[in-house]
Amino acid sequence: MAQVAEKKLSTKLDEIHELIRAEIPWEPIGPTPMPEVPDLRNWDRRLLKTYAPWYAPFCDVCALCTYGKCDLTGGKRGACGIDLSTQQGRIILLACLMGCSAHAAHAGHILEFLTERHGPDKKIDLGPFIEIEAPNIRTVVGLKPETLADLKIAIEYVYKEITHLLDSTHTGQEGSYLDYESKALHASMLDHVGMEVADLAQIVGFDYPTSVADVPLVEMGWGAIDKTKPVILVSGHNPATSTVVIDYLRENNLEDKVEVGGVCCTALETTRYSDRAKIVGPLSRQLFFIRSGIADVIMTDEQCIRTDTPQEASKVDSLVIACLDKAMYGLEDATDMDTEEIVRRMVDNREHFAILDSPKAAEVAVRVAMKIAPQRRKAWLTSEEAVELAKKCTNCGICEQVCPNLFSIGDGITEVAKGNFDLIKKQFNLCIGCGKCEQECPNHVPIFKIMQMGASMDTWKARVGRGPVMDTEIRNVGAPITLGTIPGVIALVGCSNYPDVDDIADMVDEFAKRKYIVVLTGCAAMVAGMKKDADGLTVYEKYPPDFDGGGVVNIGSCVANAHISGAAIKIASIFAGLPLRANYEVLADYVLNRVGACGVAWGAMSQKAASIGTGFNRLGVPVVLGPHSSKYRRLFLSRKEDDDWSVMDARKREIVDTGEPSPEHLAYVAETKEKAMVMMAKLCIRKNDTPQGRSIKLNHYISLYKKYIAKDLPEDIHLFIRRDPDIPLVYKKEVRAHLQEIGWQPKEPVGLPTLIGTYPSKVSVDAVIH
Amino acid sequence: MSAVVPFHRVNVLCGLKSARLVENAAEYANLIRKAKRPLLVLGPLLLGSSPDGKLILQYALDIAGAMNIPICATETVKGKMEELGVKPDSAYDAVEIANALKDLGWRGVRKEGNHDLVILFGIRSDLGNQSLSALKHYAPHLKTMTLCKYYFPNADYSLPNFKKDAQWQEFLESLIDNLRKGA
What we know:
The complex is a heterodimer.
Chain A: H1 2-19, H2 41-50, E1 52-55, E2 61-62, E3 70-71, H3 84-118, H4 135-141, H5 148-167, H6 177-206, E4 217-220, E5 231-235, H7 239-251, E6 259-263, H8 265-273, E7 278-281, H9 286-292, E8 297-300, H10 309-315, E9 319-322, H11 339-349, E10 353-354, H12 358-372, H13 383-390, H14 398-402, H15 409-417, H16 422-428, H17 436-440, H18 447-451, E11 460-463, H19 471-483, E12 489-492, H20 502-513, E13 517-521, H21 522-527, H22 539-542, E14 552-556, H23 561-575, H24 584-594, E15 597-601, H25 607-618, E16 623-625, E17 634-637, E18 646-649, E19 654-657, E20 667-669, H26 673-682, H27 691-708, H28 732-742, E21 753-754
Parallel strand pairs in A: 5-6, 5-8, 6-7, 8-9, 9-10, 12-13, 12-15, 13-14, 15-16, 16-20
Antiparallel strand pairs in A: 1-17, 2-3, 4-11, 18-19, 18-21
Chain B: E1 20-21, H1 25-34, E2 38-42, H2 56-67, E3 71-73, H3 77-83, H4 94-101, E4 117-121, H5 125-138, E5 143-146, E6 157-158, H6 165-182
Parallel strand pairs in B: 1-6, 2-3, 2-4, 4-5
Helix pairs in contact in B: 1-6, 2-6, 4-5
C-alpha cells in the first residue's frame, strides 16, 4: 500500500512539474509548487497561534441544511456536530471563496476573450522595467508565465483548488475552526493568483500602461460627464465590454460624439484604455447616477453591480445591456439576434437585453444611445424643485433606522425643505448609495433625487491605474523599506462602504506627507481624488506618482491588488535575493517580519474584499478595516501582553522571546479614521527595523497618537523600544522618563528574525538566509 | 414578550438569545451594584453633545464616579477624558477589549481579576452589537449591558429604543442618582 501511495504522490508531482515546466531552471523549485490545502497549513497554524480568530457571530444558529435551524449558543452543537466557532470559520471560508471565485472567473473570462483575440502565444511583456512579471504566480504556482496560455495553467490550478475548498464547506466535513481558517487563508492566497492572472492578461491584451509611473490624470465626477451628448455608463469590473465600446467609437470616429463614463472598477479599467473616458465615481455613486437618468445606455458586466439595474433604469427611461453571463437579470438573450432588430426593439419598445458578444453589445449600445439621447430629458433638479419635494418629509426617522451607515437623511431633507442645503451636502459624503431610505419612506419622498442637490457637480482628477510596481522602483526602495527608513507602505484598497468618503483622502494626505509610500486600488483609488485642498488640488495632483516615500500611486482596479502583494514579494526577491519559485512560506515569513506594509480596507463591503484582505494576511501583511467590517464576523487579533512573540534569530540559530508585538494584529477594526491612522503607523513596525528605521517609525506612531488620541505617550510604546537609539530624537526626554518610571530594560534587536524554526515546517532555517 | 426590534435594522437579531430590555433606572442601578467588578467601555460617540449642550461623556464619567467603576477608553475618548481631568484605567479599542474579556483568566483593567459586568456606552451601534456578540458567545463568565439610546439585542441587558433624547437623558440622570444613593 505504501508503495502505491508513494507512486501516486510521485505521479502528482510529475504532473505539477510538467505544468510548471520544471526543466527550465530559472530558479530552483521550492517546497510547495501548486500547493494544496495541507501544504501551507503549518504556516497558517503558526500565524493563528499569535493572531487568533476573533469571532463576532451574526447569527446564533446554523441554517445551511434541513437538519436546522440549529441553535449554536451556549456551547451547543448542531445536528451535524458543528460548533459555533467552526460555523464562523465555515462562513468566512465561503465568503473568501466567493471573492476568490469572482476574480478567478473574471480572469478566466478575460483570458478566453483575449486568447480569442490574440492567440494563446501572446507574450507577457510588461515593458523594460518589469522583469518579475508575475510574483504571485511564480511564488505560489512555481511557474514563470510567458504567454496567455501559461496564465491559463495558473487559473486552472486556482479553479481546482476552489472546488476542493468549497467541498469542505458541505455539511459533515471540516470540524475545526482553525482548519477552516487555514482553508480561508488558502482560498485568499489563490485570490491573489487569480487577480494577477486577470490583470496581466488585461495589461498585455488591452495594451494598458505598464513600466511607467507618470500615467495621465483623468476627469472624475458626474459633473465631468457631458450630458448634452449620448452617454454610455459601464458598470462593474470586467473590461471586455467597455474596451470594445471604446474600439467601436474609435473605429467609427465617434469618440467626440459619445460620452463613456464608468462606475466602480470598470471605470478604472476604461480609463487605463482611454484617457478620454470618465470616472463617474465609486460603487456608492452607482444608484445615484442611474437614477439621475443621465446615462442613455447602461452596460453591466460583473461584480458589485446593482442587481436591480434594469428596474432602476426603466424608471428613468435608460436602457440596459447585460454583457456577461454572471448577471443576466432574467433578460432575453439577444446574443444571436440580428443587430438591427435589437436596436429597433430597444429604441421603439424600450426593452433591455442580455448580449454576451462584446462587439455586438458595443455596437448596439452606441447606436441605441445615439438614437434615444435626443429624445430624453436630462436635467438636474433645480433647488426650487428640491425644496418642494422635500416638504413631504415629516422626519419620522424610518430612513435612519434602515441606513447601513446609521445616519439620519431625514434631518438633511427637512433642512432642504427650509431651503438649507448645507447638511445634505455633508450627508452626501456619508451616503453609501444603497437606496434603502427611499424604499422605506412612508411619504414616498424621492430622497435620491433631492440628494442630487447635495451632490457636488465638481470635477476632480484621478490618476489612471498604472499596474505593477516597477522592478527599478523596488530596487530603490527595497532597502529603505526593510530597514525601516521609509516608514512603511500603506495600501488603501477596497469598496466604498465608508463612514465618510473624505476619510480616504485625509488618510492618503497624512501618510504621503509623512513620506510613507501610499498605494491605492479600486473604489479607494477613486475617492482619494474626490477631495481638494485649499489650493484646489487632489492628492493625485499634490504628490508624485512614484512608488517611493511620499508618492501616491493608483495601482488600478480590484484585480490590481495582486500587484500590491506582488510588490511585497518582489522586495524579498529583488532586495533580499530570495528565490520565489514555489517558495510561499519563506516569502510570507519575510514579509511578515521585515516588510513594513499595512493594508487599509476602510470601506470593505464585499466578499472580494474579504478574500483580498485575508490573502494579504497569509502573506504577512496586516489589514485595518472600517467599523462596518466587524460584520465580516472574524478578525485576527493578538493579545499583545500575553501572546507568543518569539522568533528564531536565523543568524544565531536561537529562539528569542522578543516580547515585541510587531505587527500587533493581522485583521483589525477601527471605529474612527483617527484611530485607524495611529494603528496603521503602528502596524508598519517590524522586528527587522534598524535603530534608525525604528526611531522614524516610532516618531510617526507617537506623533499621530498625540495628534489624534491624547497628549501623553501610547501605553504600549515600551514594547517597541529595544534600545535607546530606537527612541525618536524629538521625544527622547519624555520617552526616557516614561521608560525609567516603568522599569523598562533594554534588549538586543534580533539579527535575522524569522518564524521558520519555531514551528513544524518542511522549510529549514537556511532557506531564509540570503 | 414579542421580540424587540433594534432601532438600527442592521442589528436585527438572527437567533434566539436576545437582551432583556430594562426601562427602569433603579433596576439598572441594582444590576450594576450587584456586580463585583464592573467595567465601563466608552466609545467616541460620547464626544458629541446632547441637545441641551451637555457633553455625553459627562454622563459616563458621572456613572463611573458614582461607584468607582473602572473605565476602558476606546478610540479617541482618552484625550477628552484627560482634558476633563480623568485618567482612564485602560485604553483598548472595542474589539481589543472584547478579545481580552473573553479570557476568564485575564486580570482585568485594574489587575484585580476579569470583570463580571461590561457596560458599553458610545460605540457606534453596528460595531457595538458585534462586539457584544463576541462576548455573548465567548465570554459566558460575564454579563453585558448598554447605555446607548437604542436596543442592542446581543447584550444581556439593554435600554429600549428611546424616541426622544430627553427620555434617554432622564434615564441616565436617574441611573446616576440611583447609583449615588446606593454608594
